[in-house]
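Problem statement: downstream parser choked on a complex file, so we are re-checking the raw output for the adenosine-5'-diphosphate run. The parser issue turned out to be on our end (a line-ending mismatch), but while we're here, posting the original submission so the record is complete.
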Amino acid sequence: MKILTTKNIKISNRLIDQIIGQDEAVNIAKLVAKQKRFLLLIGEPGTGKSMLAQAVAELLEQNKSSIFDILSLPNKEDPYQPLIKILPSEETENFIEQYKRKIEKAYLFEKYLFYVLYFVSFFIGIFLYILYKGSFQYILFSIGFILLLYLIQKYTIKNLGNAYLPKILVKNSPNKVPFIDATGSQIANLLGDVRHDPYQSGGVETPPHQLLEAGAIHRAHKGVLYIDEVSTLSIESQQNLLTAIQEKKFAITGRNPGSSGTMVRSKPVPCDFILILAGNIEDLENMHPALRSRIRGYGYEVLTNTEMPQNKQNTYKLIQFIKREIEVDKKIPDFSFEAIIEFLKEAKKRSGKKNYYTLKLRELGGLIRIAGDICISENSSIVSRKHIKQAKILSMSIEEQKRIRSTKNES
Ligand SMILES: Nc1ncnc2c1ncn2[C@@H]1O[C@H](COP(=O)(O)OP(=O)(O)O)[C@@H](O)[C@H]1O
Ligand SMILES: [Mg+2]
């Protein structure tokens, strides 16, 4: 029989199958992806909430329809209400190319006019040169004039044309379902904004459609919008988020009261996404009741587990977890049998309960990485028990370090 090390452990390449100890949450996440529902994940930090949300996006990938880009276009009738266009991602480039040609056509007269002017200036220069018997200054003069014409053409006509090109508000890659993490976002970041234009109403203003900035809700269109620490969202943000998930579209307008951007309000911008909110139990109190009720009405609430019973299956899952962390990190070697046993002991200890493993796996992952780093620093090829023991000391929190130092001082 081969000795068990993490070398002979296989892990799934699907994120959803890599999540351990959260079977209920995993099953619900699958439903959420399949039925396009909302989800509220409550639980301790580092138990897999972000991972679950990312797994939902990955699941969407398997039966994805099209991935879309969102563009803004000038509105001839009312420039302050830019038009919005949504296109399958692979068509965007072509669309803009054609739009460019259309604009070039509109400026065709100006273009030829400049060609004629170049020509005329050139010949007048030559003519005067010949007339005044080789006086070189006329040639220089005509070259200077042509240069001036060129600059005028470049900075007026061409700039004008480019300013009226569509602006890409949201660009996706054609084979990737968007996963947008908007944790800690300010309202403008969440809902979109209109940049301030200092030249507004001065005649050289930027066309308003160029000033629009998409929000996280728009970038998440047809994908997942994830927001952790939900209580840090302002009530105003939560109210607007509620509107966005009800309407599945949300106009972009200036969010800064003193800015010229408040005069601009786009046509509705699509924002049809799976909303996944997360937080801890205390966060629930600061959640907008209407938003929470909407999620319950059109989705699920799940509490993630903080520990799991110690049994054969769960032990194997934890070993797979070690392997996953090693593969994700890419910088640390495999674990020996003794290292695995020592690691499992620590996972048990950290649960604070008899016959349970902790599921605060972010911190446990930290232990794996520190042990790996120690191993590397010693030029060893496999992580041993000794490395785990040293890692435990190194991975102590500041509070623990302080506590140990003070008990040492007392004795
Ligand atoms: N249930 C889990 N299964 C596997 N790995 C996990 C799990 N929970 C956390 N982890 C590990 O910890 C890291 C942080 O987890 P994360 O999903 O961000 O936790 P949370 O969002 O709940 O704070 C993950 O990238 C993963 O490496
Ligand atoms: Mg997280």
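For whoever reads this later: The radius of gyration is 31 Å.
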